[in-house]
Amino acid sequence: MSAIQARSLNKRYGSKRGVTDLNLEVGKGEIFGFIGPNGAGKSTTIRMIMQLIAPSSGELTVLGSRITGDDPKLRSRIGYLPSEIRLYPDLTGRQALELAAGIHGIDLKKSPVLDYAERLQWDMKPKIKSYSLGNRKKLGILMSLVYEPELLVLDEPTSGLDPLVQHQFFEIVREWNASKGTTVFFSTHVLTEVERLCQRVAIIREGRLIRVSSVSELTAAGGHIVEVTFAEPGDRRDVYGLHSLDPAAAFTDGVHRMHVSDNKLQAMLGMLTDKPIADLNVRRPSLEERFMDEYRSKSSTEAGGQ
Amino acid sequence: MNKLLGFEWRQNKRGFWIAFAVVVLLQAMFAGSAQSYIGNPSIGDMMKSMPQGMLEGFGIHPESLSTYEGWISGEPFTFFVLLLGFFAMNWAIGSIVKERDRQTAEFLFTLPRSRSEIYWSKWGAHLIQVLLVAVVSTATVLVLGASSGLMEHSGAVMAVTTSGFLTTLGFMGIGYALTPWLNSERGALSIGIGLVLLMFLFNMLASFGDNLSWLADLSLFHLFDPFALSQGSGMPAAPIATALALYAAGSLAGWVALLRRDL
């Protein structure tokens, strides 16, 4: 069963596009990454899931309920962390948590959220107006976990968090997913986070989905990156004929970098065996590199079409 | 509902206490100084030298200064409506726009509470706040009137202040109708204060001549005749119905717009 299902979903703001013909399915219990640059339509999609805005056309079903308007019962099953969390400045952190818990009908003292507050090194006594962006973000994370949501919708959750806290946050999300089967819909433009956390990923660009696949499939489909440093200094691309296997072979800071498809890897390594190699690194491309490839190829296809 | 109502109350707490202090103290001041005005011939002479239009704009009739009830229906009534109208209008017109402008709408409207529940909780909190200020002001005017021995008809005084409260509800109706459509809290407050002030000016200008008298029809300050109420004429049904209809229609329009609008 799907936690989120979008069919031909469209959102327009007057003449401006939000998202166009979005078709997406997120399975229950999945950790799903939703990536794209600023303005691509990530937040628009999330705001439709949270019923802050209504789709212009198409269908959106969340946790089995089709969204047709304001549905507070459905929202009681969703934990939401907005990208820019703004709360009431005169409340203390604890009061804000109590407010959220109270509205969900939960006793804050019995919620695991106080333990998470310690793990995130968050002080709940000061007023929200004195909080840094990071502390506001921590409060937002805790508010989204204050009850036990079936679906966690996280919109750029780690901006403003230091690496240690980010690590703790990912641990908590993984724990929830593993122990409670919580579905996580995770929007970001930090691709390493998706790589670390998500099972599947969707790439959105200018309001349209350009790819949905598992993270491993996405990176595997990108062939291999071969990075070689030769014992002899300088650019050896022409001397060793590296362009014959990758016409776009690059030389930067003493490192020769080639991108080869899986069927050319053997040939590439064979060609390198009799060369004076000082260092060699063969790896799958990172999600970021694949993301950039997808973007570039999509842009050039569109430019060619025009 | 109670939690949301309490939360709105808490958000408006500072504004409420300022409104409470300003309106109640001013009414107490007017009621306390009634003795200096009532039956004072020098005040009567001074009034004769002043432009009638301006006096009427402030609701002052020379004959109203002969009784405590009449005195309360003049300047104290005008300031009561003006000040309570400012505060109440701002609470109403700010109810949704402040959440959008402070970017707290994303938190509030993703809670597991319906937009209707959130809206009517705010509405309820504002009504209680306005009612409290009006009741305490009225009580203050009644107590001071009774203790000075000047007040003869407490019912007439209550009718005057009740008409002020109903006029304020009319302002709130306008505020609720506008709040879902605005994006800036400052802009909304300016519009709110501007509308109350504009209606006050229309009422004042309408008194300056027959060719401007139509302006009175555009002003809620002209809805009731406080002087007639002070003379024991009783609460007329039509203005009550108009004020309540404006309040109800504005509140419903704001609610329907909130249900349909993107946030």
Automatic annotation (TrEMBL), chain A:
Instruction: Fetch the Pfam families from UniProt.
Output: ABC_tran
Q: Which family does it belong to?
A: Belongs to the ABC transporter superfamily.
**Which GO molecular function entries does the Swiss-Prot or TrEMBL record give?**
ATP binding; ATP hydrolysis activity
- From the Swiss-Prot or TrEMBL record, give the protein name: ABC transporter ATP-binding protein
Which keywords does UniProt give here? ATP-binding, Nucleotide-binding, Transport
Give start and end of each ABC transporter domain. 4-231
Question: Which PANTHER family does the record match to this protein?
Answer: ABC TRANSPORTER ATP-BINDING PROTEIN, ABC TRANSPORTER ATP-BINDING PROTEIN NATA
Q: Report the superkingdom from the record.
A: Bacteria
Record lineage: Bacteria, Bacillati, Bacillota, Bacilli, Bacillales
UniProtKB/TrEMBL annotation, chain B:
- Which one Pfam family would you cite for this protein? ABC2_membrane_2
Q: Where are the transmembrane segments?
A: 77-97, 123-144, 156-179, 191-216, 236-259
GO MF, one term, reads: ABC-type transporter activity
The answer to whether UniProt assigns keyword Transmembrane to this entry is yes
Q: Does the keyword Transmembrane apply?
A: yes
Q: Which UniProt keywords apply?
A: Membrane, Transmembrane, Transmembrane helix
Q: Give GO cellular component annotations, separated by semicolons.
A: plasma membrane
**Protein name according to UniProt:** ABC transporter permease
Q: Which organism is it from?
A: Cohnella pontilimi
